[in-house]
Design a protein that fits this description.
Helix content is 51%, strand content 16%. By secondary structure, the chain is α+β, with helices and mostly antiparallel strands.
Length: 260
């Protein structure tokens, strides 16, 4: 497929507002004719910046490295790729694994039958949005011509990924807001019902919704001894991203040691 045709197809998918999976499937199918491509993967950085998260995995064979796989940022070789802003070619994944036996992601990719890879940072507005992985069952499959080809589209891919992720986050935020509003309405109805009975009226403080949130967050932080992050953190217990919880704490005036 000609470069202009690939570019036109990608732009069309962006304009049509396809989601991240749709864009990735389009890339996989369109680029297979120009690249020795057997697998395409997309990873993003977690909200707290501590992990790389596998987001999309498309392959013409069985997948071992699946969505949700996470790897720490601090000891990842991907940091060099991000900092350099340049694509990286690994001619032999088996040799790479021998030198880095602790790389679980490489081990899983090799288990899938992949022999070589090309990694491309996706950058928009001077910020790394994600990482694109091309893998092949052929050893030494990728070269500088392939790098030049993908680099010509990388900025457009970065914009499309940024857009897709933004839409996904907005949808999740709207879903959370809908749940919160439903819970709030249910809570208000319950408080109203209990108040009307008279017998329990004095047992329930007349808190506003913001005050209820303050109390819930403060009590949760008390249970976690101020811990926000991690499996035993308040964010996990409240089913919120840590950054969202911290934003709510700041807005509501709740500190790690607030006593409400």
């Amino acid at each position: 497929m000609e470069k202009d045709t690939i570019l036109t197809t990608i732009l069309k998918e962006i304009i049509e507002g396809k989601d991240l999976l749709g864009i990735s499937l389009g890339l996989f199918n369109n680029l297979k004719e120009s690249l020795p491509l057997n697998r395409l993967g997309v990873a993003i950085t977690s909200d707290d910046g501590h992990f790389f998260l596998s987001k999309i995995n498309i392959s013409d064979s069985g997948i071992q490295l699946k969505e949700g796989y996470r790897a720490p940022v601090h000891n990842s070789s991907l940091l060099k790729v991000i900092r350099s802003g340049q694509p990286r070619i690994i001619a032999s994944l088996k040799d790479y694994l021998k030198n880095k036996p602790g790389s679980i992601s490489t081990r899983l990719i090799v288990k899938e039958g992949m022999q070589s890879s090309m990694t491309v940072p996706l950058i928009a507005n001077n910020k790394t949005i994600g990482i694109l992985f091309f893998s092949s069952r052929q050893e030494g499959a990728f070269n500088q011509d392939h790098v030049k080809l993908v680099t010509q589209f990388s900025h457009i891919l970065s914009i499309s990924l940024e857009k897709a992720l933004l839409i996904e986050k907005l949808e999740k935020t709207q879903y959370s807001l809908d749940i919160a509003m439903t819970q709030n309405e249910g809570l208000s109805e319950e408080l109203s019902r209990l108040s009307e009975t008279g017998s329990k009226k004095d047992l329930l403080p007349n808190y506003t919704w913001a005050e209820w949130q303050q109390k819930i967050i403060a009590q949760t932080l008390s249970l976690t001894k101020g811990r926000i992050y991690g499996e035993k953190g308040a964010a996990k217990l409240l089913d919120l991203p840590p950054t969202t919880l911290q934003s709510k704490m700041k807005k509501l005036g709740v500190s790690k040691h607030t006593d409400i």
